[in-house]
């Protein structure tokens, strides 16, 4: 039976802090979470990351972001999590957001 040591928990926490500091904050910028919607989140966060990283890494970054948003909802900082059902595929990031008639 294996147990996670306190140093292992510390390493996991430091990795999450590193992702927030180096990946999420630079791309989200100073936008208020209350004004951020799904499309701007995809355009400003998901698609630039898909150009640099594998989809599995982007899903991990999204998971950490989603966890932080859920904590903000629990703390009543924002009213709800708008990013729960964000679907993204690696081939969607270069499609323009244009309505064709």
Automatic annotation (TrEMBL):
Fetch the InterPro entries from UniProt: DNA_brk_join_enz, Integrase_recombinase_N
- Keywords of this entry: DNA-binding
Q: Does the keyword DNA-binding apply?
A: yes
Gene Ontology MF annotations: DNA binding
Q: What is this protein called?
A: Uncharacterized protein
The species this protein belongs to is Lysinibacillus mangiferihumi
